Amino acid sequence: MVGRKIWGGNGLGRKMVGRNIRGGRMGGGNMIRLFHIVIVVLAVAWWPLCVGAGDGRPTGILTALPEEMQVLSQHLKDKRTRTFLGVTFQTGKLQGRKVVLATSGIGKVNAAKTATLLLDRFHPREVIFSGVAGGLNPDLSPGDIVIGTRTAQHDFGKLTEREFEPQTPTPETPLFIEAPEALLRAADRVAARVKFDPILTTRGARTPRVIRGVIITGDVFVASPTKVAELRETFKADAVEMEGAAVALVCWQQRVPCMVIRSISDKADVGAWEDFERFIKMASDNSARFTLELLRVLAEQPVARH
Ligand code: SAH
């Protein structure tokens, strides 16, 4: 028997078209009700993705150093702290948006550990890394901002007597991690409206510029013109730092949108250490200000998972 009318009272006179989970027959009225429930459940599940907001998930913001977190932390409202495995996370609101902030410490191991805890404990909708970097692109000066279109680990690969070869990409660990276009577009909007203090140089005042660029990451502070030339040649990179690609990879593997924002503190050359000490505060603040403005843009036009 293919079907039989089992409910006379539903007024629809439908034939049985399915089975319930106990293996019994299911009536047309039940099927319609089930259909309605499925529609409602799907609508509830999809709504946040459609409108990109309202699911209450925070934006995660990481920095490596306390200096890089200072301005963000100062602006944080409804501040609360929670510590996991020795990493302290600050929750609250920035620009009216729910955020989780953490300072990872220097280097890829610390960055990956903090990113993993952030994703596991707070389920952020997207992750932004804000901080300072050494400039590889000769056009960049201290205070300028690089919006990371892609990141790579520059010290991960094969080393022979003659040469260094970057890692062989695998499906779970690509050489370059691309930032999602939606976050990059939001950053472009910030670039068009963010205001920075002019920087005084020996040749007069200059306004910091913002570019899209490639950011590479390794467990060394680069202060070597030879290394700068090699990194530029191998990775076509604009800035070098010590955490971004680690965070981007952890996020990419979990399908959480991630973007690295860095302001130039030095030029990774022989004067890098001195410049770093001199410009760390100004560059950290520029990156934090850019990130604050980015939160405002994201509040206007949120980014869904990719
Ligand atoms: N003050 C620390 C060192 C900071 S390392 C100490 O005393 O040990 C530099 C930090 O800034 C890292 O978090 C890195 O991401 C970034 N950075 C800035 N300039 C850099 C450069 N030239 N090479 C690598 N990382 C750089």
List the helices and strands and how they pair.
Blueprint lengths: L17 E2 L5 E2 L1 H24 L7 E5 L2 H10 L1 E8 L2 E8 L2 E7 L4 H15 L3 E10 L9 E9 L3 E3 L4 E3 L9 E3 L2 H13 L5 E3 L2 E3 L3 E8 L7 H11 L3 E3 L2 H10 L4 E9 L5 H29 L6
Provide an overview of this structure.
By secondary structure, the chain is an alpha/beta fold. The chain has 2 domains: about 50 residues, no CATH class; about 250 residues, Rossmann fold (3-Layer(aba) Sandwich). Helix content is about 35%, strand content about 30%. It contains 7 helices and 16 strands. Strands 7-15-14-8-16 form a 5-stranded mixed barrel. It has a two-stranded antiparallel sheet with strand order 1-2. A two-stranded antiparallel ribbon has the order 9-10. β1 and β2 form a beta hairpin. α2 runs parallel beside α7, α3 runs parallel beside α6 and α4 crosses α7. The chain is globular, with a radius of gyration of 25 Å. The N terminus is likely disordered.
Strand content: 25-35%
- The outline comes out as globular
In DSSP terms (H or I, runs of 4 or more residues), the helix count works out at: 7
Whole-number mean pLDDT = 88
The CATH architecture of the largest domain can be given as: 3-Layer(aba) Sandwich
Taking the sheet with the most strands, its summary is: 5 strands, mixed, barrel
Number of domains: 2
Radius of gyration: 25 Å
CATH topology of the largest domain: Rossmann fold
CATH class of the largest domain: Alpha Beta
Helical percent range?
A: 25-40%
Strand order within the widest sheet?
7-15-14-8-16
| Count of individual beta strands | 16
Uncertain residue segments: 1-24, 47-54
Run of helices and strands = EEHEHEEEHEEEEEHEEEHEHEH
**N- and C-termini, Cα separation:** 47 Å
